[in-house]
Amino acid sequence: VILAYTTIAQGLVHSQDDILYVPYDNKIAKNDNGSWSNVALTLPADLYITSICEKGRFIAIACAPKSGVGSSRMYLWDRSTTLATISDTVDWGVGVLSVLENIEGYLVGVSSSADATRTTYKVTFRYYAGDIGAVQFHELSSPTTATSPALLIDKQKINNRLYFAMRFYQNGSLYHGVWSISRGEGGGFVITHER
C-alpha cells in the first residue's frame, strides 16, 4: 500500500483485535492481517493526528490544529470502520498536543505552545478526567532562544511509564533528552528528565 501524506505519527497494534492502525494527516489507515484499508477513519480537515494510544477497547487520538493556532483535540474512536463513529471528543486546550498515552487508566498528554510575542515557550501536561475534560497538572515555561525548545512526537511506554523526547531551557540550563511521566506514590503524576 502507498499512503500519500504530509504528516505521519507512530502506529499501534490494538491488543483487542491485533490490527495495525497508522495515523497520517487527519486519517487512520489499518492493516488487518495483510489487508490494508487506507482510510479507516477521517477526522476534520483542519486537524492533523500527532499521537494515538489504546484506551480499553477504544483508540485515543491526539489532534493538533494545522494552523498551529488554537486548541488541540482528543478523540475516542471505537475502531468501527463501518460507522466511522467517534465516541467522544475533548478540547485539550491551547497548544499542539504532541504526545498522548494511557498511564494506569489515565490519558496523559503533553502539549507545546508559544505566547503571542514568541518570547516564551510552554510545555503543558494534562490528563483526561472524564466529564471534567483535560485537566492541567504541570507546566514548564522557557524563554525562546536561538536553539528553540522542541517537543518530539516519538514516544514509548514501558511498565506504565511514558518516555518521550524533549529539548527545553529552564533557569539558563538546557535539558535535552528523554523525559518520562509516571504515577507517583501519592497518586499524582511525576515528570522526570531521565537522560
Quickly describe the structure.
Helices cover 0% and strands 64% of the residues.
Report on this model:
- With 195 residues, the chain is mainly beta.
- 0% of the residues lie in helices and 64% in strands.
- The protein is built from no helices and 16 strands.
- It has strands at 12-13, 20-24, 27-32, 35-42, 47-55, 58-65, 71-77, 86-94, 96-103, 106-114, 120-128, 134-143, 150-158, 161-170, 173-183, 189-193.
- The strands form four sheets. It has a four-stranded antiparallel β-sheet, with no helix packed on it.
- The N and C termini lie far apart (37 Å).
- The mean pLDDT is 88.
Proportion of helical residues: under 10%
By secondary-structure content and strand pairing, the structural class works out as mainly beta
| Biggest beta-sheet profile | 4 strands, antiparallel
Strand content: over 45%
Number of strands: 16
Task: Give the topology, please.
Layout: E1 12-13, E2 20-24, E3 27-32, E4 35-42, E5 47-55, E6 58-65, E7 71-77, E8 86-94, E9 96-103, E10 106-114, E11 120-128, E12 134-143, E13 150-158, E14 161-170, E15 173-183, E16 189-193
Antiparallel strand pairs: 1-2, 2-3, 3-4, 5-6, 6-7, 7-8, 9-10, 10-11, 11-12, 13-14, 14-15, 15-16
Using brief descriptors, characterize the structure shown:
4-stranded antiparallel beta sheet; 16 strands; mainly beta; globular; single chain; 195 residues
